[in-house]
Amino acid sequence: MNSLWPERAIQKCALLLALAACAEEKGVRVQIEAHQPLANQPHLLEVQAQVTGPSSGLQYKWFSGVGEFDPQESYSPKTSYLFSPNSTKDRVWVEVWRETERVAMAALDVKRGGGSEGTVSRATPPDVQIEITDVPRYDPGGGPDTRDDIAGKVTGKVAKGYSVVIYAHADAWYIQPVPFALHAIQPDHTWKSWTHTGSDYAVLVVPDSYKPVTRLDILPAVEGEVFARTVIEGKKQ
After folding, report:
1. Using alpha carbons only, how large is the chain's radius of gyration in Å?
2. Looking at 116, 136, 159, which one is the last position of a domain?
3. How many domains does the chain have?
4. What SS3 string covers the chain?
5. Which of 74, 69, 80 is nearest to 59 (CA)?
6. What is the CATH number of the domain that holds 34?
7. CA-based angle 167:169:30, to the nearest 5?
8. Is 2 left (phi over 0), alpha (psi -120 to 50) or beta?
9. Residues 146 and 66 in one domain
10. pLDDT, tens digit, for every residue of 39-80?
11. Cα-Cα end-to-end distance for the chain
């Protein structure tokens, strides 16, 4: 009997390791954020799911109490939400699925014209917008040995002393292309850099004094020292 113990112990350990690996693979977490894209359309919100953990093959299903989504289901973590004509508040939520299994869920209370409920009031950011014109390739695995170009333009009331921060998303958001990097906005309001690849890319407009975080689970909202932000999926070949 004793001679069988080591073999059984090894088999048991192998089973536990396999179960742990499965649990880690399914370890998806999600958080929702919402903002009003246009001041003259208070009934419309742009809603995005911020996901951490394995992100390949995820599908997003959006729900609300009385409003509508377009799209309601997609493989992109972004959607538009339209308030019901007679409502000023609602609750929205997202279910994240991989094939036939729901792997995560999150909810958020929203209000007409104000994005999400309970937002901390901070200084109003300047009227600045940013866009990505050269989109890097879609590469969910990312990694230090990957590389692509990214570029864009800042519009609106752009002042001296503004910079750009770039993030790429793999299992989390990582600053690009090196830790603590700030990128200058040129006199024609364009910016460019190279980046390691990911599934999605985000760019912030910030003051030169901004101290960026190297790794983020959730991107910062447009408030305080974050003057503008855009997020885009990588370019699929």
Report:
1. 21
2. 116
3. 2
4. CHHHHHHHHHHHHHHHHHHHHHHHHCCCEEEEEEECCCCCCCCEEEEEEEEECCCCCEEEEEEECCCEEECCEECCCEEEEECCCCCCEEEEEEEEEECCEEEEEEEEEEECCCEECCCCCCCCCCCEEEEEEECCEECCCCCCCCCEEEEEEEEECCCCCEEEEEEEECCCEEEECCCCCCEECCCCCEEEEEECCECEEEEEEEECCCCCCCEECCCCCCCCCCCEEEEEECECC
5. 74
6. 2.60.40.10
7. 120
8. alpha
9. no
10. 677 888 888 888 877 778 899 999 988 889 999 998 988 899
11. 59
> pLDDT tens across 81-139, in order?
999 888 888 888 899 999 889 888 888 888 886 555 433 334 567 889 999 999 999 99
Do residue 66 and residue 147 come from a single domain?
Answer: no
Domain range for 181 is: 128-233
What pTM value is reported for the model? Answer: 0.54
Region of 148 on the Ramachandran plot (φ > 0 left; ψ -120 to 50 alpha; else beta)? beta
Buried b (16+ CB within 10 A) or exposed e, 187-212: eeeebbbebbbbbbbbbbbbeeebeb
Q: Is residue 223 part of a domain?
A: yes
Q: Is residue 17 part of a domain?
A: no
Task: Assess if residue 24 is contained within a domain.
Answer: no
**Of 92, 116, 140, which marks where a domain is finished?**
116
- Chain centroid, CA 44 distance in Å: 20
Amino acid at 124: T
How far is residue 204's CA from residue 164's CA, in Å, rounded to a whole number?
6
